[in-house]
Design a protein that fits this description.
Elements lengths: L1 E9 L7 E8 L2 E3 L5 E4 L4 E5 L1 E6 L21 H8 L2 H6 L4 H13 L3 E6 L3 H4 L9 E2 L4 E2 L14 H11 L3 E5 L10 H8 L6 E5 L5 H10 L2 E4 L1 H8 L5 H7 L2 E4 L11 H16 L5 H7 L2 H6 L17 E5 L5 H6 L6 E6 L2 E6 L14 E6 L2 E6 L2 H12 L14
Parallel strand pairs: 1-4, 1-5, 6-7, 7-8, 9-10, 10-11, 11-12, 12-13
Antiparallel strand pairs: 1-2, 2-3, 5-14, 14-15, 15-16, 16-18, 17-18
């Protein structure tokens, strides 16, 4: 498959946004024009597609479950107990794991995300992730957390970290997600085990001290900021400004919708508003763009493959309607309805019908048509059929806000 997107404004890390052509051949960005051309007519921005560094794909069901009004959690553990006692959990238990993962794949797709980390052990997700319409990575070492009461995921912190280093993967763990004594020693625990380094992708980090931030920066570690989930559960979030100023590689995740934002684009807006309320200043839209593309690719040890529009990278592309003169503001303020085209490794997986020429002019096998904000759209798979099956199993017309298409 080879094609060219012409007449769009190309937006990528390290270069000034400019009007130009983007050429795709055999799944990668190339310099040679393709045999099929689609004109964006100067009305669209072309970005690397988005990367979410933290989600729990089995947990994306609604409504969210949190503390009692006027209270907040000290650690994640009482939340886990509340979740398992909730109506949300009872209701979602009527669905299969495959159902929940499929819903999560579309949660990502409909918000412009083509790469996501599912924070569960590979023995749980390895058979399911390849079936999703987007890329959920399997190449990572992990721990649930660094405390005596964590869920003991994986083969132990040191073994998982060594595996990550040997394979050039990230080592991913929740860290300092709480304010008990053990949670607040998370960085010290990693240091004592000799595993605090640039393979570490540390999630949440809400109780980081200034010394912890300095150590993480010096080690070259990355952080996944999940502002909505943090505030919902704990009424506090990471010291993001200090992290950025210290040189920590900060990225963004949603956590699951059981505590976090319904979708990734909503998370961007929430986190920016949160930053404003915390610091009385703006988090630049260009910085946020870097956090969900270039920074995230670096954190997942995928910077040689995704995260920019450089020649040779995989053709992971997000095309948004240009509703703002500033391309970075355009992204940060986008909603699901602003997506015109989403491409994974050169293959369009969601888009307006005018892009069907890339797929040969007709709806291919394995794709369906839906309608979003009055626009007919093609999509890989059958999310409408999935939605109907979910509603059949739970017995009523469930509304999941991360699915934006209209009922037939």
């Amino acid at each position: 498959m080879e094609y060219t997107l012409t007449g769009g404004t190309l937006v990528s890390h390290g270069t000034k946004a400019h009007t130009g052509d983007l050429n795709i051949q055999d799944g990668r960005i190339v310099s040679r024009r393709g045999s099929v051309s689609v004109d964006l007519r100067g009305e669209s921005y072309v970005y690397p597609s988005l990367i979410s560094t933290h989600d729990h794909l089995q947990g994306n069901y609604l409504p969210a479950v949190g503390p009692q009004p006027g209270t907040f959690y000290l650690t994640w553990l009482p939340w886990d107990n509340d979740l398992k006692a909730s109506e949300t959990f009872r209701e979602r238990s009527q669905l299969t794991r495959e159902d929940l993962y499929a819903l999560s794949g579309y949660k990502c797709l409909f918000s412009g995300v083509t790469t996501v980390n599912d924070h569960f052990p590979q023995k749980i997700n390895s058979a399911i992730l390849p079936t999703l319409p987007i890329r959920a990575i399997l190449e990572y070492g992990l721990a649930h957390e660094c405390s005596s009461y964590d869920l003991k995921w994986g083969d132990g912190i040191e073994v998982e970290h060594k595996r990550a280093v040997e394979n050039k993967w990230p080592f991913i763990t929740h860290l300092c997600e709480g304010f008990d004594e053990e949670s607040m020693r998370g960085v010290e625990t990693l240091e004592s085990l000799g595993v605090l380094d640039n393979h570490c992708l540390l999630v949440h980090c809400i109780s980081f001290s200034d010394a912890d931030i300095k150590k993480a920066a010096q080690a070259g570690a990355s952080v996944s900021w999940c502002g909505r989930s943090n505030m919902f559960m704990f009424n506090v979030t990471a010291k993001v400004r200090k992290m950025i100023q210290a040189g920590v590689n900060v990225t963004i995740g949603t956590d699951s919708s059981a505590t976090g934002s319904e979708n990734f684009l909503a998370e961007l807006k929430y986190d920016r508003n949160l930053y404003r309320s915390m610091y009385g200043e703006d988090l630049p839209a260009e910085k946020m763009f870097e956090m969900v593309t270039h920074n995230a690719a670096k954190a997942l040890w995928m910077g040689d493959r995704v995260g920019t529009l450089d020649e040779g990278k995989l053709g992971d592309i997000l095309v948004l309607k240009a509703g703002n003169d500033n391309p970075y503001e355009n992204l940060v303020n986008a909603s699901m309805e602003n997506i015109e085209l989403l491409i994974l490794a050169g293959m369009p997986i969601y888009g307006e019908m005018r892009f069907l020429d890339i797929l040969g002019g007709t709806l291919p096998s394995g794709y369906t048509q839906i309608k979003v904000s009055g626009r007919p759209m093609f999509v890989k798979g059958d999310p409408a059929g999935l939605y109907s099956e979910v509603r059949r199993k739970i017995g009523f017309k469930k509304i999941l806000g991360y699915l934006p298409f209209e009922d037939n």
